[in-house]
Design a protein that fits this description.
Shape: globular
Radius of gyration: 22 Å
Distance between the termini: 41 Å
Strand order of the largest sheet: 5-8-13-10-11
Strand content: 15-25%
Number of helices: 11
Structural class: alpha+beta
Helix content: 25-40%
Length: 456
């Protein structure tokens, strides 16, 4: 893979080319993106295969006609774990789809989506070694463990990251990160994940779920098109025209729509659902100091789910209770006054293969779940999240060595704290619940040097 500097230098010498209109097209001109089964059985399937084969064979990574160009764009510009995650990828897909049409010579070609809420196994066509859709290093094929419903809860009425009860960070955590982790291989590394053809169908489905969230209404709302959130443009390399942020506000602005914009519906939740077996970790307590309210050191995550308890000081308990109340949450409009910090996080050799991840849950009740698991879900942790943290440090000037070094991951905890209040908060417990796709490593996968709870 070429470096970020090489990519920028090479592409900067190329003239900007416009591949998509900026105007809202007439409704009759909108292309419709279908689900994978419908697309596979339709007339455009051969055109997609031909376009992908042609682009994967093109070795000129500075030109958009090559598959590597789009991998490099993603590694250079994508905002994972940051505002505009969904919007940037919407523009990315639109520009890539235009290149597919160009490569195929078929102006009707569209990107299909993979609805894993209905069909959670990687489609058979992507597992056919003779197909341009195939990639040999996938670890898992079953992503049902990532298909949770918390992002679609009616309480998530805001959209952008940085706001409490927001859709964008919730859907990035699940199902987005989980699908990357469970497939594993190339898909569990942010720097190279677009090499896998399934990446594009996965992100088309996320884009569809965003549109479904908007269409569902019931108080859900986006920032107004006049809001500063939509100011500026997204870059996709110098060889492809930028996309104005406001043009990603809705699919029809970019000339397409989806054949299905209904939100996934969770089945009714059983009262007192049983918990998975969770073993208590033996971890060294860390003293509270500075912003830390207490922590623990030395944690290895393997094939079993693991729980670690964090003892809080008297002042720490009071601070946590204060942040859990409505007044405490109102005083922190971004919802990140209470945080869980994982430090010195690293993958083992086995863990780097992917095919698994861990749900991180706060204060799971020992008697069983009387509320949906999402109530307690802080975040997820797997190879993909670790690669995102490494990638962010590399982009901040850490160099390529940062892509292999242990990282620090900070997780906002105040939203979950508010959801479980007024449950007892004399101590905080973190449960790392393992989710597998089959074929995942059975040895230790992730090590955490130390973790702690901190508050402003």
């Amino acid at each position: 893979m070429i470096t970020r500097r090489q990519f920028l230098q090479a592409s900067a010498s190329l003239a900007l080319v416009s591949t998509l209109p900026r105007q809202i097209p007439a409704a009759t001109s909108l292309r419709t993106r279908p689900s994978w089964p419908q697309f596979r059985d339709g007339p455009l399937y051969p055109a997609l295969l031909g376009a992908i084969a042609k682009m994967r064979a093109n070795t000129n990574s500075t030109r958009p006609g090559s598959w590597a160009y789009w991998t490099n764009v993603h590694a250079t510009f994508c905002p994972h774990g940051k505002p505009h995650f969904l919007a940037w990828h919407r523009g990315f897909l639109a520009r890539f789809e235009a290149q597919l049409r160009k490569a195929s010579g078929n102006s009707a070609l569209v990107l299909p989506y993979w609805n894993y809420y209905e069909h959670p196994f990687v489609p058979a066509e992507f597992r056919d070694a003779s197909s341009p859709l195939y990639l040999r290093n996938r670890t898992g094929t079953d992503v049902s463990g990532a298909c949770t419903f918390g992002a679609f809860d009616a309480s998530l009425t805001r959209f952008p990251r940085g706001k409490p009860n927001a859709f964008e960070p919730a859907v990035e955590t699940a199902p987005h990160n989980g699908v990357h982790n469970l497939i594993g291989g190339t898909m569990d590394n942010i720097a190279v994940s677009p090499r896998d053809p399934i990446f594009w169908l996965h992100h088309a489905n996320l884009d569809r779920l965003w549109e479904a969230w908007v269409q569902a209404g019931d108080g859900r709302h986006m920032p107004a098109t006049t809001a500063s959130y939509w100011s500026g443009s997204f870059s996709y390399g110098a060889a492809v025209a930028a996309v104005r942020r406001v043009d990603t506000y809705a699919p029809d602005i970019l000339g397409y729509r989806y054949d299905d914009t209904t939100l996934p519906v969770a089945q009714s939740y059983p009262a007192a659902a049983p918990l998975p077996p969770i073993q208590q970790a033996i971890a060294v307590p860390l003293p509270a100091q500075g912003a830390s309210l207490g922590g623990a050191g030395g944690l290895a995550l393997g094939p079993q789910s693991t729980r670690v308890s964090i003892a809080l000081t008297a002042d720490g308990r009071n601070r946590v209770r204060s942040l859990a109340t409505a007044d405490g949450r109102a005083a922190s409009p971004t919802g990140d006054a209470l945080r869980i910090v994982l430090d010195g996080v690293a993958l083992t050799a086995a863990g780097g293969q992917g095919g698994y991840f861990y749900k991180i849950l706060l204060n799971l009740p020992a008697a069983g779940l009387a509320q949906p698991e999402q109530t307690y879900l802080l975040s997820t942790l797997g190879p993909f999240e670790i690669s995102v943290a490494r990638h962010a440090r590399m982009m901040a000037g850490g160099g390529m060595a940062a892509m292999h070094a242990p990282v620090r991951i900070v997780i906002a905890a105040q939203d979950v704290l508010g959801r479980i209040w007024p449950e007892p908060l004399d101590a905080l417990t973190l449960s790392f619940v393992r989710v597998d796709a089959g074929g995942a490593p059975r040895d230790d996968a992730i090590v955490i040097d130390r973790l702690w709870v901190e508050a402003d």
